[in-house]
What does this fold into?
Amino acid sequence: MEPSEEFLFRHKGFYFHPGHVTPDITTPEYIDSLEDFEIRDSDVFVVTYPKSGTVWTQNILSLIYHEGHRDGTENIKIIDRVPWLEYNIHNMDYVHCPSLRLFATHLPYYLVPRDLKNRRAKVIYVARNPKDVAVSYFHFSSISVLLETIPDFNVFLERFLAGKVLAGSWLDHIRGWSTHKDDFNILFLTYEEMKKNLRGAVLKICKFLGKQLNEKELDMVVEKATFDQIKTDPRANYDLWQIASTVIKGHFLHKGTVGDWKNTMTVAQNERFDHVFKEKMKDLSSTFNWATNDDI
It folds into this structure.
């Protein structure tokens, strides 16, 4: 079953939003132009596959760097504090934005700006158990008018495993970034370790970024970066985009739990997923070592 061209377009082996709801959100020409996008040494990129903790990590970065976000004095939405590289939703002038620039992206390693491989700018890659990704993605597609709604989870699962969804194959995405990690100045995190020890994850991010926070600042970042806080913060939650009424028919953030796939997948679906996962990821176990049947 091929994805509908109304909801996705394929360019250089990757699936993008076509912008039928938000015109010109991106184009093949714009994607190609990113190869020459000028990277600054101070730039920080959050790289994820969809539904792997993108909004969460965007907010953590913003809380670390922007005191106004921490203390509630800065009324700037997350989409503007940490904008999307490939989807310039608010038509921001990235070239003339002052440093420090924070970006989010779902791009595969081979479509990011060429200069990102100079290993000076920083990349934070967040991965999540692909079974939870698939289930979260499935639920999100039912509320987002940007995505095709597929009522049958079994049909969706086959499409997900075949990479015929937004951002293509989860397996290819994570394999590409992990096998080319030496090309980038990169920190790998998992959604599960962030859920298990948020303070430890924030400290790890701060160390990677060379960013010093005092204990009070660190406590405030951790407090405001919890899932419940982000879900109710009008500056942090995509539910409250200025275009949300045309894009989201429910809540952007779902449960945010670890292991929720067990409430959706049948035994047969789980076995099918394991077969594909183990075949394609067997040589990457040292990088991403969670068991797909168990919580981290």
Observations:
- Residues 240-252, 292-296 have pLDDT under 50 and may be disordered.
